[in-house]
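Take a specimen:
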Amino acid sequence: MANKGKIRKYRKPLNLNIGMIIFGVVFFYVVVCVIMYFQTSHIVRYEVQEGSLATENIYRGIILRQETVEYTTVAGYVNYYAREGERVAKNDLVYVVDETGRLSESLESANLGENTLTNRELAEFRSEIVGFMHGFDGTNFSRTYDFKFSLKNTVLKLANRNMLESIGGLGGELGGSIVNYAYAPDSGLVTYWTDGYEGLAAQEVTREMFEEKNYEKKQMLGNTLAAAGDAVYKMCTQEDWSLVIPIEASRGATLQEKGTVKVRFLKNQYESWAYVKLLTGADGETYLQLSFNNSMVTFLSDRFLDVELIVEDERGLKIPISSIVQKEFFLIPEDYIVAEGNNGKGSIMRQCFLEDGTISSEMLEVDIYNFDSEAKEYYLDSSILDVGSILYKLDSQETFTVSKRATLTGVYNMNKGYADFKQINILYQNEEYAIVKSNTKYGLNVYDYIVLNADTVKDDQFINQRE
């Protein structure tokens, strides 16, 4: 029987052609380029433009004023005569204390007629309601209760005023000295709430005080029973008051240099000028005290106030913070450099040695990066000179040994195709951008191209303009 042959799979020979080879080379090249692209730091340019910084100028402050809390000396039912925010003179009647409660009973039994409100009193109600509507914030619902207590107090005080005007007509029905009259010890504005911040000094302010969860405002209501020694009202005797706001130290220092600042109160959109003073609080934080000499009565019921500082925006050349770099330079006296106009170039005469060892001199062209008009010194690149280099004064045998250094703040200009350092004078900055002075002799100009990230280049590095 014949053996059957095994069937084997025929392997086709590898058929390489020029097309496959070219494709493989191109594919390998692309892979290498992609890897190099992600491993190489890329130089991105930024075009310098004129602009300003949009700064946050809205702050919440704590109000400080001259406040004196008054206390009752006897127990009984307190009925107020002066209205909230009313200015009283010394020895004016502020409230009465009914020790037995018989005053209310006697007045209820008497025919006092109907209580009517004057146009001024109606305007008071409208002002309170409109102010609450415009300032309502759903995230701070506690102000709704303040509004409720304020309206209730206003109603009770208006009623008590009519009631007390009728006391004289009751005569002996009051039964002797059951009613104690309390008079103002000094002239000032009357208010009926306390919060424990009376007498607070500006240097005692802390960030914790601005937390509303820690704040408690106690309203004083009329026709309520009070014990001897309880607080019954508060007097504000001075028109001068101040607002303390937390602020960045650099911004606060800038405002203090100006002396005054215009302030807009967000509660009613009124504007006023304030004297400014930078201070350190009890917690070591920086605060700005805004002092006013008017409008205190407008915010008599407030302890905290939201304001906007109206300041002129700093305008200049706007550059990103990432482009800013520090560079060290040699300081050379003015007499040892010949400046060539306004092109940032100059010449120096440096000592050198010839091949035979004799001392000679050579003229070098240098780039000037800044000039200190007070010290009369130029800033020269440290790559041109070394510590110990000797310079000659022109038309003289006097020499200067290079050693003194200083640092400049600047950016890398890339207009000429390489990283060229340019000094900048920063006017103002935030976390992302800086505004620098324009039209400086050794600085930037509008529409210049600079390196976006200064960490990606070195001094005098050649830059591909297409990057």
Summary: The mean pLDDT is 81. The first helix runs from residue 18 to 39. The CA atoms of residues 316 and 437 lie 5 Å apart.
